[in-house]
Amino acid sequence: MVKISGRIVILAVLLAFIAFTGAAFGDINLNEEQLINEQLNQLNLDELNEFIRQIDEEMMSYFPELSLRNIIENIRNGELDLSLAGILQGMVRMLFKEVIANGELLAKLVILTVVCAILHTLLAAFDQGTTAKLAYAIAYLVLVVLAVGSFIVAMNIGKEAIERMVTFMQVLLPILLTLLTAMGGITTAALLHPVMILSLSLLGTVITSIVLPLIYLSAILAIVNQISSRLQVSRLISLFKQISLGILGACLTVFVGVISIQGVAGAVADGVAIRTAKFMTGAFIPIVGRMFSDVMEAVIGTAILLKNAMGIVGVLIIFSLTVIPAIKIVVIALIYRVAAALIQPIDESGVGECLESMSGSLIMTFAAVAAVGIMFFMAVTIIVSAGNLTVMLR
Amino acid sequence: MELIKDVVREIAIIVLLASFLEMLLPNSNLKRFVQVILGLFILISILNPIASLFSSDEMVFQIEAWRYQPQSSYEFDEIITNAERITQARENVAVREYEERIEKQINSLVQLVPGVNFSEVSVKTGSRNSGVLGGIDQVIVKIYEEQPEKQLSSRLEKININEVVISIQDPNAINQEQRTSEKHSMSKDQRIAEVANLVSNFYSLPLGKIKVILQ
Asked: Of B22, B90, B101, which is closest to A35 when you measure between CB atoms?
């Protein structure tokens, strides 16, 4: 009797073991929402939410609404709908609104250029008379004042956009690095943190205090260059432009290069460290070690989800911060170009050339804003993908 | 940057002056000389600040960026502290889930011991601070010979089986018979020891970590 009962117990234990291991290593059904909320509560998201609120206010009528919670929820359900058509439509609507808003400027520029052209013709008719020359100079100066007014506005838009992007990155970066550290990417975070903080501030300072002023000064020189036909400073203008483009290019290359190398190096080190830790857990905790590492891995999945969602929100905000000022700058540049094109048949005085040169400077400002946007976009992408690489190496 | 701004300002003034002189001067050969002189002025206005850079005693070319210390609102220590808080919050959920799973396992395991009809298990696992994270620190098993009334009634409320028809010979009847006979044959201490040994062998745990209470 004892022998039979012993056998039954052994059999039952074996059956139970098979059943339990199935239960233990099978589906881990944790409450994802609770886990995500617990992690979100630990993060300081006030500043980020404030940014999102401001962006939403500015872009309410053009782009779909941004919301951190909605994006996390959508990514969880695998249905992130960014609606490219909606964004493009919004951009086109914004472009037209800006063109209409700046239509007045175009009209003023064209009228004054026509006046300038007529005065220049009179100058020839009256045998280079000083009065006509003076009248032309005054008309030219009025035109320049008008153009410079809108030019300064556009330059300030560019400068503010870059400063806002830097501030936003200073808000987003600690959140992304915290999430990266929380999912095991401590080496990546430790490597990226000083470089990122330094390069962000440095980039902002270099572009707003060297590149943009050089572009501005080159535009001023372009205006001056048209005043006298004999004293030319066009080579100084191209020197300024080349220096500003060179600095911009160097910033872009160095920033992206350094960050990508550090991101990958750190990710590999973290991946190996986590893999070792996982093996140690499995090996050192008898029987249930595997179950433990499985549960831990399942909960880390939510941290990756959170980090990727934060990355998407970051990229969308950087996109918005770049697109709004970029459209405004491009519209003013476009208006200068259109005015220059319209007046070319009657213009002999070089006003059109001056407008075209100012438009070129504005396009360079746009390039500076876009370059900063691209740099920050890549920085966010690299941090997010470094985290994913860490997990992939598990 | 101030230097370049000054240069541009000077150039603008000189060019304006040149255009005024152009208007004021009569049409003669003099104009050419004036133009050359003003051109020289521009040259000097560009070269003068550059020359002053080299002649000054201070190292103006020293790059400030190397000594640049950004005012970061977030220090890395703060990032680490926040990350630890998040990890802790996440681990707490994971550990709770893990403990519940082990409790269920042990619960089912213990009920295979003859004479144990009902059991309650509580498992404590090690934290990062104390011992191995995830390692089983303590197992408390409460075993009952008879299912307590409270548990029974709560179970009965949940289970609602209308009719069970079993046509074959019921093996549980045999098991029940065996269990009843073994139940009477094992003493309380033996039962406790068997439960403790079973859990200890199954999870490779020292007996000291297992506490069995018979109720």
From this structure: B90
- Six token digits for residue A192: 């990226």
pLDDT one digit per residue (tens) for chain B, 215 residues = 778 888 888 888 888 888 888 777 776 777 778 778 888 888 888 888 878 777 765 555 555 555 555 555 567 888 888 888 888 888 888 888 888 888 888 888 888 888 788 888 888 887 766 666 777 888 888 888 776 665 555 554 555 556 655 555 555 555 555 555 555 556 778 888 888 888 888 888 888 888 888 87
DSSP three-state, residue A80: coil
Length of chain B: 215
CA dist B23 and A131 (Å) reads 9
Please indicate whether, in this complex, the C-beta atoms of B91 and A299 are within 8 angstroms of each other: yes
Residue B88 domain-assigned? no
Q: What is the domain partition of chain A in residue ranges? A: 30-392
CA-CA distance, A68 to A9, in Å (whole number)?
A: 54
From chain A, the residues in CB contact with B76 under 8 A are 189-190, 193-194
Residue B145 structural domain: 100-158+171-214
SS3 category, A128: coil
Cα(A116)–Cα(A140) distance, rounded to whole angstroms? 6
pLDDT confidence tier of residue A152, bands split at 50, 70 and 90: very high
- Which is nearest to A229 in space by CA: B190, B94, B201, B19? B19
For an interface test with B, the pick among A220, A224, A240, A306 (most B C-beta atoms closer than 10 Å) comes out as A224
**Cβ–Cβ contact B82 with A under 8 A:** yes
- Distance, in Å, from the CA atom of A42 to the CA atom of B205, rounded to the nearest integer, reads 36
Tell me the pTM. 0.77
Q: Classify residue B14: in a domain, yes or no.
A: yes
- Tokens found for residue B148: 């307590």
Of the candidates B23, B80, B104, which has its C-beta nearest A130's C-beta?
A: B23
Q: Does B123 touch chain A (CB under 8 A)?
A: no
pLDDT the model gives residue A23: 40
CB atoms A23 and B101 under 8 Å: yes
Nearest to B94 among A210, A214, A299 (CB): A299
How many structural domains are present in chain B?
A: 2
User: Residues of A with CB below 8 A from B35's CB?
Assistant: 230-231
Which residues of B are less than 8 Å from A224 in CB distance?
11-12, 15-16
Nearest C-alpha neighbor of B123 from the set B109, B134, B108: B134
Residue B52 shares a structural domain with residue B104: no
Check if the beta carbon of residue A48 is closer than 8 Å to that of residue B74.
no
Is some CB atom of chain A closer than 8 A to the CB atom of B138? Answer: no
Cα gap A327→A208, rounded to integer Å:
19
Please indicate if any CB of chain B lies within 8 Å of the CB of A11: no
Which one, of A191, A212, A319, lies nearest residue A261 by Cα?
A191
Nearest CA in chain B to A300: B90
Measure CB to CB from residue A217 to each of B4, B78, B87 and give the nearest one. B4
